[in-house]
Amino acid sequence: MSLGTRAGSDTGPAAPAPPAGRHPVVALLVIAAAELMVVLDATIVNIALPGIQTGLHIPGGELAWVVNAYALAFGGLMLLGGRAGDLFGRRRVFRLGIALFVSASLLGGLAPAAAPLIAARALQGVGAAIAAPTALSLITTNFSEGRDRNRAMGTYAAMAGVGSTAGLLLGGALTQYLDWRWTLLVNIPVGLAVLAGTVVLTEADRTRGKADITGAATGTAGLLALVYAITRGGQDGWTDAVTLTAFGTAAALLTVFPLTQARARQPLLPLRVLRDRSRAGTYLTLFLVGTGMFATFYFLTLHMQHVLGYGPVRTGLAYLPFSAGIAIMAAVGSRLVVRHPPRELAVPGLAVAAAGMIWLSRLTPHSSYWGTLMPGMLVTALGLGATFVPLTLTAVRDVDDRDAGGASALLTTAQQIGGALGLATLATLSATAADRRLAHAGPAHRTDPRAHDPALVTHVQDALTHGHTRAFLASAVVFTAALLVAYLTIDAGPQERTEPPRTRKPS
Question: Is pTM beyond 0.90 here?
């Protein structure tokens, strides 16, 4: 049964396919704005971190939690957020998520110290985990399957891709010209506008039943432990006692999780969602795409600021080709999916993305923006943009409406967990490579390459660049692995060919 053609559950009869929303343009703007805001906030504070550290006197070891608190809550609670939308109404839960996000943004923007800020960032992550999966599910209830839904998915995918880059651009401008607090306060007017616009959204029928508390506890805690272990391991070492304990806890909980789901009457994540080979392969591909993409943003930002000496605004502006490439190819992809199977789009796209990473691995401390950095970024973005629409559609395709929330949540969870794992792993790889180049330099000379004599600056910049390029090569390997997974597992046909005749809009 295709997505959007059934709203029943095991405890109730099937319902007719939901009609398209009465205000599709406004509905799309509301959903797209929410997705952009949620994704944007994962990166908007990155460039503002030095200002946050100075303004709130945060020790260096605690500063990372301004970012990690959001990622932990966002990735760890995604499945629960998606399931809540199925049980209690997607529009209602979507409103709750946006309201939490706006409230947390206000608390964070006014935070007088580190602890309240970190707590607010965690609450933002909770709101994002509720809003993101329900936003994707609302597309299925507000747009008819076929051309309208494909275009809506294309816009959604573009927001997901552009949001990360837009966060860096907006974060740089707000930090340099206003204050770091505006990287959080800017969410308030956008969020309030999204809340006002939800009146046009069509609500889906709810799944009758109760929430799987056991599954929610084990799955969410397991993901939180895993993301925490990955994050801490990248900072404090993989043999750190707390890191190993967190990994052990995650392994135990994530082993118990599928057992609870197999036995639960109404599971948090129905395992039947993963029985389809194409869908399971899509989730694994998205996991690997997240691994490479998160690391790409991180190391490009470090290279531009620490090696090339770019300021916050210039760093943000340098990402514009990346945003443009993703947006262009997402729009093209939304048209091509009706004529080509997803594998025919995702595999070439991932090959192009891997080529872009190899291009960036040729960076030197003296590489020009126009000659090396920008072309590599653009090629990578074009490749990734070509993959987003087919993968997003395949992840939720032919899923019963009762499982749409869980399937949508797993899509974003795969990217978030993959991103956390990739960033922690590749950061360790990069730091190790750089340290080997700096083996004959004293530890005091490794933190700030601009604070010493010209010869030492050159040496440190060379070492940092070596570390960054090793990470780019590793990202190329990750994208190649994603290519192989997509080629071997995704065998769905073009989107429009599977559309049931009864769901077509009358001419």
Answer: no
